[in-house]
Amino acid sequence: MTAEAVVPTMTTPSLPDWVFPPPGGFVAEDLDHIPDLPAHTELIDGSLVFVRPQASFHMKVVDLLVAHLRQAAPDDLRVRREMSVILDPSQRPEPDLAVIRAAAVRDDDETFYKAEDVLLVIEVVSPESKLRDRGRKPQLYADAGIPHFWLVEKESGKPAVYVYKLDPVTRSYAHTGVHFE
């Protein structure tokens, strides 16, 4: 009997067609029509951005902020977590939290809010998203006219909330303070 070498057959997994952007990139409405799109996929500059599962610190901070903001919010505002916001046709990020006008809530099937209905966006920085959360997203939110932006960083194991207010003249955020736990 001769022993024959068994060579494993490796196949390249086929990627779904939607992984490849169309000419000119994706548009915000595409996210509602792409089959089997991973949860929490964002659209930044016409490209799909896939996010990794969040760490425990991230989720604890989001839960804490949701509880406190909902308790403090007046009746004409709502707090939403992980809902995308259409900023323009090629921008549909998903902030960790958003405070929106109650009148913007239409029904339980909605998958996004419009920038003009958002008063505050909050991003909790994760190692994999720090460039987007600190750089590109604040630019996009400011360009869309969202009045307030909070960036939550992990400092010495605790959350630090950096608070920004939109300067309507420059359409950029001005730092107004930092709050520690």
Distance between the termini: 72 Å
For the largest beta-sheet, the strand count, sense and barrel status come to: 6 strands, mixed
Q: How many domains comprise the coordinates? A: 1
Tell me the total number of β-strands: 10
Q: Over the alpha carbons, how many angstroms does the gyration radius reach?
A: 20 Å
Specify the structural class: alpha+beta
CATH class assignment? Alpha Beta
Average per-residue pLDDT, rounded, comes to: 92
- CATH architectural category: Alpha-Beta Complex
Helix and strand run: EEHEEEEEHEEE
Would you identify the CATH H-level superfamily?
tt1808, chain A
User: What's the helical proportion of residues?
Assistant: 10-25%
Contiguous helical run count: 2
Domain Putative restriction endonuclease: 30-174
Pfam family, one: Uma2
Keywords: Endonuclease, Hydrolase, Nuclease
Protein name: Putative restriction endonuclease
Describe the structure.
- With 181 residues, the chain is of the alpha+beta class.
- It has a single domain (53-180), classed as tt1808, chain A (Alpha-Beta Complex).
- Helices cover 17% and strands 31% of the residues.
- The chain has 2 helices and 10 strands; from the N terminus they run E-E-H-E-E-E-E-E-H-E-E-E.
- A 6-stranded mixed sheet has the order 3-5-7-8-9-10. Strands 1-2 form a two-stranded antiparallel sheet. A two-stranded parallel ribbon has the order 4-6.
- Strand 8 and strand 9 (158-167) form a beta hairpin.
- The chain starts with 41 loop residues before the first strand and ends with a strand.
- The mean pLDDT is 92.
- Residues 30-174 form the Putative restriction endonuclease domain.
- Keywords: Endonuclease, Hydrolase, Nuclease.
- InterPro entries: Nuclease_put_TT1808, Restrct_endonuc-II-like, Uma2.
- It comes from Nonomuraea jiangxiensis.
- One of its GO terms (molecular function) is endonuclease activity.
